[in-house]
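anyone seen this seq b4? input:
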Amino acid sequence: MSPFAMRTTTDMAAERGRKKAGAARVFSRQPERIAALWRRMRLAAHEGQGVPGPSLLDGLVEPFVRELGLTLEGAESSPWSRTRAVLRLAPERGARALHDEFSLLRRCLVDALEVLGGSDAERQRIHSAVDEAVDSAVALLQRLADPKADGPRVPFGGLVVEYFERPSHAKRAPVGRRDERSAMH
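predicted toks r here
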């Protein structure tokens, strides 16, 4: 048989199985690689606008990707509910900032899945997980403004903190002026 002969259906199915396992394995065992890609994409998205401000999702991406990988391996519960990390909510930035950051994360996850040869079913699981995360984060943000607002449909498994972005109003001494007080060392 020629070395260029067509592969059999069994060979192709085995290769798809390896790729599928490969995507789940990279997500669950090497989430730092996906997080690094997300950080590069985030910097590229703000290119020409200076250095972007601190991300609301930084520190959360790796644990979320790890849990998403476990979901791709067959775990049944929500990866968002299993994620043990800190979610920062910034009322000054609003829901738009959360949507923008999660949108970039979604694009990163789907791009990584395509490179790793993921299936349509895996892509749908990623979209569902990110949708749950966005909905939950926005509901938590709304609850900061109105404690009577409905809580998230899917609870977040980590810690939620309010992130304040107020500029410092500390007064600076004019240049060349010495403090009259003596230093006490």
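The longest strand covers residues 86-89. The CA atoms of residues 14 and 20 lie 10 Å apart. kinda curious what u guys think
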